[in-house]
Amino acid sequence: MIGYVAVGLLGLLTLSIPVGIVLFLLGIGVDTFFSPFPLIRGLGNMVWSASNSATLIAIPFFVLLGEILVRSGIAARTYAALDRWVSWLPGGLVHANVATATMFSATSGSSVATAATVATVAMPQAEKLGYDPKLFSGAIAAGGTLGIMIPPSINLIVYGFLTQSSIPQLFLAGLIPGLGLAVAFMIITAIICSIRPELGGGRRTFPLGQMLRALIDLGPIIVLFALIVGSIYMGWATPTEAAAVGVAGALVIAAAFGGITRNMIVESVLGTVKITSMIMLIVIGASFLNFTLASAGLGRELESFLSGLGLTPLYTILVIVLLYIVLGFFIETLSLMVVTIPIIVPLVVELGYDPIWFGILMIVMIEMALITPPVGLNLYVVQGARKSGSLNEVMLGAIPYVLMMLAMAAALIAFPSIALWLPQVLG
């Protein structure tokens, strides 16, 4: 049955059918041919149950927060400020791409929104200053993936919802790996540009006065991060309430910088509706598919397959990681999460692993899927912001950062405390 589902999924995706619809069609197919019960009769109740959760209300709030930051010009100010602080490193402005993505990730919650934001403000600078298009674009695509690791993260919210895990603990667990990846991206950039200086453009320095004045433009992102994450860990707000507080804070900051206009509000709301609708369709469709797969016995089949391999828990985890790498080539990332979580996570817990730790390991795999072809969304987002060149350039530029993600995955497996230390200390 696994083979039939995989072939059906890939076949429908190649027809350019929306992912959410594909999941519903697969669920109906599994129900018709494999399930012993006519589950389609309960579809309405299943759709309501999958979407009737206060936790999921955080998603549109975090999306709206990112939309406000982009459309009010706060993101562009952040990029310009970080340019003044990190462009002296080998690689110059490429580091500003990663640093801006890191800071924007701390408020956005979405990797695609983060990549789109940085690409929009950075690409004109690359062409003007003569940077290598491959490395420059690849850094933006990779930096954008931090949006689903550094809290607040929409994907971590979905993971917590599907596994009944603590979302605040997941946020804490993602902080060190997320910042570690950002540092790793900057280190590999500096190494590459030290060996090949022509790839990194010119290193620029700014007067200390300009650098200090630029800190004013970093303030809004820092304040929002403290507002959102701080309110959660002080016990003042749930993740959903903190997201609403973040939106209110973003509106106040945008007004203070003169970025509030009627068109900005309308475009932000419309963008939020579009993105949230896409996410919810995928979550609901995947919930239906997961239910039909469980009824048809896929969980038992997969468990039998893995146990039949006779592997130790460590080697089983490595097989699961390899499975995510392969599936990430072909399946959209949120879909990959919601389809596999109900099947894989119970097996991982049965092996004795912490679900919080595995959630962070899974996010690293999902991040990698965002910048590996042919379905890597961030590659297409960055290419869409470019005015010339081919998608192949973005793919090649992302390769060094894929290697850093593999290194982080290996580090998490070897040293689980990278993810679990903060939840244990502060949880």
TrEMBL record:
CC terms in the record's Gene Ontology section: plasma membrane
GO molecular function annotations of the record: transmembrane transporter activity
UniProt-listed Pfam families: DctM
Keyword flag Cell membrane: yes
Domain TRAP C4-dicarboxylate transport system permease DctM subunit: 7-417
Principal place of residence: membrane
Superkingdom to which the source organism belongs: Bacteria
Subcellular location: Cell inner membrane
Membrane topology: Multi-pass membrane protein
Keywords, alphabetical: Cell inner membrane, Cell membrane, Membrane, Transmembrane, Transmembrane helix, Transport
Regions that span the bilayer: 7-30, 50-70, 135-158, 170-193, 214-236, 242-260, 272-293, 305-327, 334-353, 359-382, 394-422
InterPro entries (UniProt xref): DctM, TRAP_DctM
Subunit structure as annotated in this protein's UniProt entry: The complex comprises the extracytoplasmic solute receptor protein and the two transmembrane proteins.
Function field: Part of the tripartite ATP-independent periplasmic (TRAP) transport system.
Protein family: Belongs to the TRAP transporter large permease family.
Protein name in the entry: TRAP transporter large permease protein
